[in-house]
Amino acid sequence: MRFLILIGLMILSSCKSQKIIFNFDNKLAVLTIPQKVTKVNYSSEEGKVAYYRDADSSILYLSFMSNLHSPNGMFILSQNTIAITAILPDTVFEGINQGKYWKEIKRGRLFYGYTNVPPFEKRSYDDALNSLRLKSQASRKGLDSDSQRN
After folding, report:
1. Has residue 69 been placed in a domain?
2. What is the residue range of 73's domain?
3. What's 86's domain CATH number?
4. In angstroms, rounded to a whole number, what is the distance separating the alpha carbons of residues 71 and 56?
5. Ordered mean pLDDT values, 10 residues apiece, the chain (150 residues)
6. What is the DSSP letter of 89?
7. Is the dihedral angle over the CA atoms 52, 114, 118, 97 positive or is it negative?
């Protein structure tokens, strides 16, 4: 009986997430994000940016080349840390703005994070960011065909 319950929980939890693929610099960033988050915008003006929005106005994003155009760019600039982002290859910025959480991770030239996340959703957004896996373009064949690609 426990085995059946465990399988049921695994199926339910797999239905609550989706895999997205972000192409950048001959690499693929693969994240598992909440199912309820939908792609709303994609821009390539200053680098490459993909946005995913929740109904509660939380935003998850991935950006290549610049964090100045990310939703958290102004928060980071207000901390006077822009020089740090240019020097350090991997950096994490996070904070609270008007009771909602924001976080940005710089990993090489890839910037990804979330903004406007209510406290009860913070863990699922942290889990999404922690799920990031970088792969080479050659490994694309092993990814699910139902993943969202950017």
Report:
1. yes
2. 19-143
3. 3.40.1000
4. 16
5. 45 64 84 83 67 89 71 66 59 88 88 93 95 79 51
6. S
7. negative
